[in-house]
Amino acid sequence: MDEREFGRSGHKASVIGLGTWQxxxxxxxxxxxxxxxxxxxxxxxxxxxxDTADVYGDGRSEQAxxxxxxxxxxxxxxxxxxxxxxxxxxxxxxxLDNFRxxxxxxxxxxxxxxxxxxQLHCPPTPVYSSDEVFDALDTLVEEERIAAYGVSVETCDxxxxxxxxxxxxxxxxxxxxxxxxxxRQVLPAAREAGVAIIARVPLASGLLSGKYTKDTVxxxxxxxxxxxxGESFDQGETFSGVDFVTGVEAAxxxxxxxxxxxxxxxxxxRWIIQQPGVTTVIPGARSPEQAxxxxxxxxxxxxxxxxxxxxxELYDRRIKEQVEGRW
Length: 327
Description:
- By secondary structure, the protein is an alpha/beta fold.
- The chain has eleven helices and ten strands.
- It has helices spanning 32-44, 60-70, 96-110, 131-142, 156-163, 186-193, 223-226, 244-255, 264-273, 288-296, 305-323; strands at residues 3-5, 12-14, 18-19, 49-51, 78-83, 117-121, 149-152, 170-174, 196-200, 280-281.
- Helix 1 (32-44) packs across helix 2 (60-70), helix 1 runs parallel beside helix 10 (288-296) and helix 5 runs parallel beside helix 6 (186-193).
- It starts with a strand and ends with a helix.
């Protein structure tokens, strides 16, 4: 699989990575054996970038990644985790002492002395404008606890504020055919600054797979049930903030644009990695079959102009009004 330079980190990352939220929590039950099989299949398919977080299953996802990689010392995988969501979301909690404590826990979970990339996990908006916060992150690098740091954001404005920081290696942002706003300012700014872009929620929480109907019911412990309207965290993390019924209808139109032999999910992933400035995209997977199919999207031919135009027209007509004012 193709790899791209990962911002200022000195690493490279596969154009399609693996998001491991599903292996921790909030997507229904995934067994340890299934988690290992997903990681194994992704790695064997050429994935060299795993994204996790300390809050996914309260460390379970980090531990699953560590267990897998410890048994495969032959693999060279860049591991990115996140911190900050295990405490009350107020700017006062984003201080060096807490960063050290959170980092200690993640290093234990991951079984490493130094983490490749640590990202602030969608912190309160004022955090992005705090010199003290970024001085503290620089200290973690100086102490060799982390090799590089980045941010995971909810809004384009937060992304642009972070990109202006001189030592930010990456910005993780929701980007998919139902969330196109980052294409206009965020991706060009990141390219100019040498900041990596990690595209998350690439399938709009599964909507873009084309598998759901208006009558689909998700498990009670699945965020697509309990966070559909932003009850537990930012609504944009669930279905990209799109109303479910609208999303299902638009997804059916999107699926019709897939070339023969290409699934709607693969079409979405191919669209993302084709956007200038994207470093890697991190679809999740709950089965080895999903992990392999996602990775295979990297081998697809570039989408022709007429397909790109049709996807943009669908977004403008069905989705744009719902999401652009909020994120």
